[in-house]
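Changelog note: in this version the structure field was regenerated for every chain. One regenerated record is shown below for reference.
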Amino acid sequence: MTDAFEGGDEVEVLVVGGGLVGLSTAMFLAQHGVASLTVEQLSCGSPLQRAAFFHMRTLELFRTAGIEDEVRRRSMEEFEPEGAVVMVETLAGHNVLDVIPGLNVGVDALSPCRRLFITQPGLEPILRARAERAGARVLAGTAVVGLVQDARGVVATVRDVATGRERRLRAKYLVGADGAHSKVRELLGIELDGRGVFSNSITIYFRAPMAPLLTGRKAMSVIYVKNAELSGFIRLDKDAHSGFLAVNTVGDTSKPEAANPANNISEPRLIELVRASVGVPDMPVTIDGVARWRATSDIARRFGEGRIFLAGDAAHVMPPNGGYGGNTGIHDAHNLAWKLALVLKGVAGPELLSTYDMERRPAATFTVEQAYTRYVTRSATYLGAKDFQPLANDFDIELGYLYRSPAILSEGETDRVHEDPHVSFGRLGARAPHLWLEQDGLPVSTIDLFCRAFVLIAAPDGAGWAEAARSVAQGITGLELEAHVVGRDGLRDREARFASAHGLTSSGAVLVRPDGFVAWRAASMAGDPAQAFSNALTSILMR
């Protein structure tokens, strides 16, 4: 990254952290027409080929941002597209347990998108390019050293890492996406709650001729390794000649030092660990790098203060099991971006921003707990932990988390934070379900209708709702709202599933927020649809 900021020292949104979540924030803001400046302490991205597992919901967000195809092409260059999650004693041995039979088993019924792996060095340039095409800027080699809020916004003191020169940047809002050791969180004085550190782990990036060990075996996306020497997991690239090994414990787990693989990261020791995981004592191994990290399950006590918000690892840190960390951070960014955009444009009241914490912190807490469950039952059974939640289905975590806030009208729901997305049926606070419809003669997922605007979709006999929505929207300057009637205007439901999938009668309608979550629905036609819709929209926008 090598860019100068040419737009002056005042911006609408300042994003701190130019990694996965920070660049996603900039991209989603740009998607809504909001200019941002991202400051990143590093002068260039990490050279280590850190691979990340991206879930259906994240790919849906990339799809609405127009980068899904590019991300998938890059993924195909780097990794096999499908594969199982297995547990082995060594890569050379047989599978001890099939944890997940296939990366995308069952996903087609729930989403138009499929899970994939891609390295962060492969993904981050795609995110950045998409954001920059829409006006976002990135300032590399720049660290935030001070923050002050006032009635107009936030003043950030930033320091050029190379020269030490300091200057001030003013923003109306600031998003701290600067990782687990967040300076923004530190400056705000926001503490983390959690279990503390339960492993000082390492990730070893290496090259070795492993392809012969995989001959005749089904594709494997993630390979958990558990033997007398170590416990961790392996991820291999497409040609099985390089990859990484994450190590959580070494040696006898009855001894405290077992949870501290980072105590010895000499090259000979790293080669020993790779060979112990592969199961070939004399395999030639080249070490490309090593990263230390702490296995924790922590969550910030609040996701912001005033005009400053936390996202990603700055707000929550979790074990890597399940690959939930990066996905959760991207979902934070997506939830926050449209709210910032509507407040900045004067479409919504500033109180809408308070719903970010209300919605994302419970969802993130649930995900943190589920990552911990997977860690102590898969990677660290030696802990004998009893303080974990029952294992929830992966689909519940990826697609089934539920929001409760004033930006979601209530139907008397419980405090449940997740459910099976197969049975959400357009429930308020749930992600709007994926259905294949037909638009202008071509297949279209309902997910494709939810890009940046509020979207009202009426069942076949609910045309009055669409007329009312369009009329109400005209009275709110700057509001983007699209209205569709199934069976009209080129939108067809050949399988007649739309109404039942959203809990509607043939005259009902549903309102989906710009982030794809159901904000309001009417099971059937009201006596005065314009008044009913106006009341609902005014409440959701907190005007």
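Spot check on this record: The domain at 10-79+115-191+299-361 is CATH 3.50.50.60 (FAD/NAD(P)-binding domain). The chain is about 25% helix and 25% strand.
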